[in-house]
Amino acid sequence: MNRDILWAPWRMAYITQKKRRGCIFCAAKKPTHPDYCFLKTRLSQAMLNIYPYNNGHVMVSPLRHVADLTNLTKAEMLDLFQLAARVEIMLAKLLSSDGFNIGINIGKSAGAGITGHMHVHIVPRWRGDNNFMPTLNNTKVLSQSLDELHKGLIHAAKVRD
Question: Residue 153: which domain range?
Fold first, then answer.
């Protein structure tokens, strides 16, 4: 059988690493946390998804550990969605995306991978970004590293719109 191979050697670190326990959003609140949190407000934070659906996939969460929208205060809800809107603007400028998928999965049956701490997914989209790879090979090719994207978002966060 003739088969093309897509090399992704950087994935070995993920495969072999010890899986972390606890809430990734609560851990990201700590100033010394090494993950890709790039912007915090008084009540919310934005961080890169390290298992992205597409380049630039960001998750925006309240700082307080709450399971769904009904548990947010009015101030938290306003802050969360203002930060989500700011991230959308930053990503559009930085990545020249044509559109976005923005959504919230509440509960395991709705597809939430992290059920205890609600968060908003912001996924940049481009015309034609669904090419043959996902359709035929169940494979997604991302053309930018998380480190490069994180540096760009840190810079963009310092520049006010």
Answer: 34-158
